Amino acid sequence: MAMTSLPSLPLLPLLLFAIAANVALGATIVKTLPGFEGELPFTLETGYVSVDDSELFYYFIESQSNPKEDPIMLWYSGGPGCSAFNGLIFEIGPLAFNITDYEGGVPSLQYYPYSWSKSTSILFVDAPVGTGFSYSKTQAGWYTSDTKSAWQTYQFLRKWLIEHPQYLKLQLFIGVDSYSGISGSIVVQNIVEGNEAGVVPRLNLKGYILGCPRIDATINDNSKLIFSHRIGLVSDDIYEAAKKYCNGSYDDVTTSEPKCYEAIKVYDRLIKDINKYDTLEPKCTWASPNQEEDMSRRALEETSSDDFILSPPKIPDMWCHNFNYAMSYWWANDRSVQEALGVRLGIVDNWERCNKSLQYTLDVSSVLDYHKNLSKMGLQVLVYNGDHDLTIPCTGTQKWVKALNLTIVNDWRPWIVDGQIAGYTIKYSESGYRLTYASVLGAGHSPQEYKRRVCYEMFNRFIHYYPI
Ligand SMILES: *[C@@H]1O[C@H](CO)[C@@H](O)[C@H](O)[C@H]1NC(C)=O
Ligand SMILES: *[C@@H]1O[C@H](CO)[C@@H](O)[C@H](O)[C@H]1NC(C)=O
Ligand SMILES: *[C@@H]1O[C@H](CO)[C@@H](O)[C@H](O)[C@H]1NC(C)=O
Ligand SMILES: *[C@@H]1O[C@H](CO)[C@@H](O)[C@H](O)[C@H]1NC(C)=O
Ligand SMILES: *[C@@H]1O[C@H](CO)[C@@H](O)[C@H](O)[C@H]1NC(C)=O
User: Where does the UniProt annotation place the signal sequence (predicted)?
Assistant: First the structure.
């Protein structure tokens, strides 16, 4: 009532300024989303940040506890080329698709309570350029690489924080998974170097999180045979033959080593029909029109057989993991969804869960040296891996962690969720650098998708500095 008697006009510029201070130019506060009933029970901001010729799209979800003090985490997905929306909807965010009784149209969304945003603000970015809703304004700008995209992601983060200064003082974590283990490690290094060089504002980096990350091509690729033997896909005799004739190198084997070549050929045949993302799940390649392409891009970790397009509303009787993925296409390509998200219409004509035609050069095959350097900094690090993952096997992850030559402070032990062993963990420390490795039992690639609830507990303990 009293409001009406106030002189409203002079207040207007002030009010606008207040809004502008909180919501950066080009940002949208999303209150409702198609498919979700009522208002979103958390704060979602979306928008673009310009870096070089790139317009990088983000989804920011504010911590649901104490956003003024809780940490903030930058998160992006692997591929390269997989949208951060994967992380939001399938892995660590507070929303999930409700596929019960799906009958076509915009899929419905439900609130997902075990979200990492319960304790942490999360800045999901579609990176590198060409991923999700991110795009380039020029032809040349589409070309990117591990080092270039890491640099752009670092610049994105700086710009976003400068536009949202209230988050600058909070503890900052970088979180990536799968292929982005490579560029994510370089982002961390860029931040450290920026801080050392006195670049302002200083970023309050506290640590990083690597989910089934690609770190070293040689270790990773060789670990596949070792892992396959360990979980019983390959007989002792075949494994021994490979070990004897291949001199520890099981990848890119040629006929110049005939006995090794023979052993690897047998191995390849044995695992041909195994689902590499989760060795216990059906492979479902029959649903994919892109098998040829998948095979030719095997070197990339995440170019999976998931991107078949079902014509809605047909959901086959047989359950396949990638049916869930189809939902994301129907949702993100809907005009009402894009309008609600503040997406610039007509630029990304056909949103893809993972862009397989990214103009991307793999210019770094190992970031092990980055972690050797980072292990001299006071950082908190979480590394985790599923034990049913044949794309980035846990054996390889354990191997490169070991190669950092850190001191064990809490040796291999089970970690428990709801009275059940959720995995095994080991903690290392070296002059302020603290690295926790955790395996996730029964989880494929990536664990936070396959064991969402358990990974929520793992993250929660880590971010609160509790032992996992
Ligand atoms: C999911 O959708 C079904 C069918 O429309 C509905 O009955 C159910 O309540 C929904 N679940 C949640 C958690 O929203
Ligand atoms: C086996 O590998 C080691 C180390 O990678 C290398 O030094 C050695 O020459 C290799 N031996 C053969 C027979 O290829
Ligand atoms: C995928 O990336 C390429 C090259 O970066 C780009 O030209 C294309 O538009 C992208 N596709 C989608 C669907 O965004
Ligand atoms: C690691 O640190 C050394 C010494 O400061 C430096 O020469 C090297 O380039 C660094 N390596 C990486 C990958 O950053
Ligand atoms: C590992 O650490 C030990 C003890 O700190 C040291 O003696 C050894 O040389 C290190 N090895 C490597 C490969 O760095």
Answer: 1-26
